[in-house]
Structures are given as structure tokens and as C-alpha cells.
Design a protein that fits this description.
NADH Oxidase; 2 domains; 4-stranded antiparallel sheet; 13 helices; 8 strands; binds iron/sulfur cluster
Length: about 300
């Protein structure tokens, strides 16, 4: 465990935020590591109990770690939460099979991990503290910690919203044994707005702001489900091929979304211009080449062809 005076904590905190900015992160905040609130714990276990995680069975595992971030790193004192904008400057034409914006560029796991490892290395070398980097795959309640760290609030669309900047952001964390003064949690809510609840094609969202019912979410079905799609999907998916951005596009917080400054998220022409016929006739070697550094490889070629189905 690294212990430092409150003055050096303040200096480290500033230096870490500056380093995060230098690495291209759009927001960075600190929260005291520990258990999530009883309310957050209850909401998550209710979501699992209702089977609203659907085919994402991994969500059932490591619940003890999800509830207590100190189980990820012994003696953890701080969760450093960061956000990286992925809003694309160029978009697909509406007549081609639609891909969620987050998958236009390179796989965020690779891009965020590389940046987070640099941030973690900076912390270790500057302070001697231990670190653990998390990007989506670790069992950590990333939206909860981002809200605790003051960088946004969780909307009815179940996404972290950065006030004035929207929700087209990837999240990542560095958990560390370094003790830092926490930022103030962001106390904001959607208020009376329910545009995303109304706009959701599958009826996956609720006015109560419960976690989305993944069995009714197109993003989950088109990306996570293996084998046949449920019958309702054919009538709801329109020309979506991979994911769904409806609950973000309708959100007033995204009205002023600014394009990402991260070159690795720049839309790849070859992906933006894919037609239904390109996908229907795509071979495995073509798929492997086009999606080598893309999150879309997760769906596999069979998955894309299935999603194209009438
Ligand atoms: S991603 Fe689409 S289907 Fe899923 S909750 Fe949002 S609007 Fe609904
Ligand atoms: S559309 Fe409205 S209710 Fe939904 S997340 Fe945005 S502000 Fe909240």
C-alpha cells in the first residue's frame, strides 16, 4: 500500500489527471475503492434474478468481485475512471446495413488497454503504488465507478452520460493502491425525459432506469447471441447489422456530440461502405482481413450473415 501526505496526494492526483489528458482521455476522475452501494448491489442482483442478462451468462460470474473492487487488487484504495470519446465524424449511408458507431474504428479493448497501461505505468513509476487496469472484460461496475468519480451519471438508457458531451464514450479504469482524494460523485439524473424508453425498438428500457432487459435489446441480440435470433428481432431490427445506437441517438445529451480526436477510432472506409451483397458473399479470409482490428470480429462471419437475414 502506498501512503503519502495529503499535499503529495493532491500533487499526484493533478499529475495523473494531466497524464490522462496527455494520453487523449476526455475525462478522468477518482473514487474511493471499496464495495458498491447496497442499492447498486441490489439492482444488479435483481437484474440477474430476472434473467434480464439473457445470453450474457458471464454476467452471473464473479458477483463478489463486482460488488467489491478491492477483490480485484489487494489493498486497493482508489478507482481512477477514464472516458474516451468515440463519436464518429463520418457516418454510414442509411441504405447500407448499419453498424453501431463504437465499432466503426479499431477495437476499443486494444486502444483503451494500451492507453491505460501507460497511465498505470506512470502511476507505478511516480508513486511506487500497485495498479490493475480494467477495460470492459474485468468484473468491475464501470458505470457505477465513473459516476462515483464524478465524470458522468447513468441515464435511463443505461449508459454513462457526460453532461454537455453525451454518451458516445468508452470507459476504462485503473485500480490502484495509491490513496488519492476522491472527486465528488455526480448527482444528476434524466429528470422527466423518457425519449430513450419510447425510442427503444425492443422495449428493453424502463422508466425506473433499471438495467436493460438484454433479451429485448437489439445490441445484445445482434452481438452477443450465438445461434438463431429470437423471432421478435426480425420485425424490430430494420437494417441494423451489428449493434444499435437508438437510445443514444435520441438522447438530448448527444445533440452536441463532438467527433473523437482518437485516430484509431476514425471510421474505416471499407467498413463504412459495406453493402448487404458484400456481406452475403464475404469469405472467411476477407472477413479476417477486414475486421482484424475491429470489435466486429466478435460476431464472426456466420453471425454477420445471420444478422443480415430477412
Ligand atoms: S441498444 Fe437499441 S435495443 Fe438496446 S436498449 Fe438501446 S435502443 Fe433499445
Ligand atoms: S434520452 Fe432522456 S431519459 Fe434517455 S438517457 Fe437521455 S436524457 Fe435520459
Amino acid at each position: 500500500m502506498a501512503t503519502h501526505s495529503s499535499q503529495s496526494q493532491c500533487t499526484f492526483k493533478q499529475a495523473i489527471k494531466e497524464k490522462a489528458c496527455e494520453l487523449g482521455f476526455d475525462a478522468c476522475g477518482m473514487a474511493r475503492a471499496g464495495r458498491v452501494s447496497a442499492e447498486a448491489q441490489r439492482r444488479y442482483s435483481d437484474w440477474i434474478a430476472r434473467q434480464h442478462h439473457d445470453c450474457m451468462t458471464y454476467a452471473e460470474r464473479y458477483c463478489d468481485v463486482r460488488d467489491d473492487v478491492t477483490l480485484l487488487l489487494p489493498d486497493a484504495k482508489t478507482v481512477i475512471s477514464v472516458a474516451l470519446n468515440y463519436y464518429p465524424e463520418a457516418k454510414q449511408r442509411p441504405d447500407v446495413p448499419q453498424i453501431a458507431y463504437y465499432a466503426y474504428g479499431n477495437d476499443y479493448h486494444e486502444v483503451l488497454r494500451a492507453k491505460l497501461l501507460q497511465l498505470a505505468q506512470f502511476i507505478e513509476q511516480t508513486t511506487g503504488a500497485a495498479t490493475r487496469v480494467c477495460v470492459d472484460t474485468a468484473p468491475i461496475r464501470e458505470k457505477y465507478w465513473a459516476q462515483q468519480a464524478g465524470i458522468g451519471f447513468v441515464g435511463r438508457n443505461n449508459l454513462l452520460i457526460l453532461p454537455g458531451r453525451g454518451s458516445f464514450f468508452f470507459l476504462g479504469e485503473v485500480v490502484t493502491t495509491l490513496e488519492l482524494e476522491p472527486d465528488a460523485p455526480l448527482e444528476m439524473s434524466c429528470g422527466a425525459c423518457h425519449r430513450c424508453v419510447d425510442a427503444c425498438p425492443g422495449g428493453a428500457l424502463s422508466l425506473e432506469g433499471d438495467a436493460a432487459d438484454a433479451s429485448r435489446c437489439l445490441s445484445c441480440q445482434l452481438i452477443e447471441r450465438r445461434g438463431e435470433l429470437p423471432e421478435w428481432v426480425a420485425g424490430a431490427k430494420g437494417n441494423r447489422l451489428y449493434g444499435c445506437d437508438e437510445c443514444q441517438l435520441c438522447c438530448p445529451h448527444n445533440a452536441q456530440a463532438q467527433p473523437t480526436g482518437e485516430p484509431l477510432f476514425a471510421p474505416r472506409e471499407e467498413i463504412l461502405n459495406l453493402t448487404a451483397s458484400d456481406i452475403a458473399t464475404m469469405t472467411q479470409p476477407e472477413f479476417s482481413r477486414i475486421f482484424a482490428h475491429s470489435a466486429i470480429k466478435r460476431a464472426k462471419l456466420d453471425g454477420l450473415k445471420r444478422n443480415l437475414g430477412k
